[in-house]
Specification:
alpha+beta; Jelly Rolls; Arc Repressor Mutant, subunit A; 4-stranded antiparallel beta sheet; 10 strands
Length: 223
């Protein structure tokens, strides 16, 4: 299967969500979370939507057998918890702060009112959700057809927001190899092997954080 360019999420480029919410008079609350704090837990009441201002959030799901799967890693500019808008009464997963994090919390009723009344935000929100669905489909294809080495490389590039011209590459929040293994769908030992390989080849660098070199794309594109 021919690999395709990693694009990551569509952003709200040129659209300041917080300024819009200010001007539209949307009621919301600024909430702050320490590293490893739970933003919301699986099974809790789903009654609000979050907009991530700063920091990072991990979305994960716990199976009945106690196995955890990481389904998304979110950064500034992302909405999450939007399932409540589609009738979800309970949270389907857990959101955890990867680093000190700041988010806007908007109650379900207020968010629905704003989306109905403010076409500008509604259009952007729909585009954001469509891009999220495309990303999920790409993740599924990646999981089914690509090797664990390619999946790890693609995951690192997405976390570094490779392809986002408006956002420079950055050091990633400190992530355990166990978390990366959960995201990629492999073992921690395999992640450790490939991370050491990437480091020796100059694709990644440890310097007060994990820095991703765009040359890592060669792993994704290699047949």
């Amino acid at each position: 299967m021919q690999a395709k360019k990693v694009t990551g999420r569509e952003s709200f480029s040129g659209f300041d969500v917080q300024t819009f919410l200010d001007s539209a008079g949307v009621a919301r609350r600024i909430v702050r979370f320490a590293k490893d704090a739970v933003v919301f837990a699986q099974g809790a009441q789903a009654s609000s939507v979050f907009y991530l201002q700063d920091g990072g959030v991990k979305l994960s799901v716990l199976s009945a057998g106690g196995r955890e799967a990481v389904v998304a890693m979110l950064g500034p500019g992302d909405f999450f918890g939007e399932g409540c808008l589609a009738g979800q009464s309970l949270r389907m997963g857990t959101a955890t702060a990867l680093v000190p994090t700041i988010a806007l919390r908007i109650q379900k009723r207020e968010m629905m009112r704003t989306l109905h009344e403010q076409s500008t935000l509604s259009d952007r929100f729909i585009a954001h959700m469509l891009a999220r669905n495309i990303r999920i489909e790409e993740d599924l294809v990646d999981q089914l057809f690509n090797s664990s080495e390619k999946r790890l490389a693609r995951t690192l590039l997405l976390l570094a927001r490779y392809g986002h011209e408006e956002r420079p590459h950055r050091a990633l929040p400190k992530l355990s190899q166990e978390t990366l293994a959960e995201m990629v769908g492999t073992t921690r030992s395999r992640v450790n092997f490939f991370m050491n390989k990437f480091r020796k080849l100059g694709f990644i660098k440890y310097n007060g954080g994990l820095k991703i070199n765009s040359s890592l794309m060669s792993v994704v594109l290699h047949d």
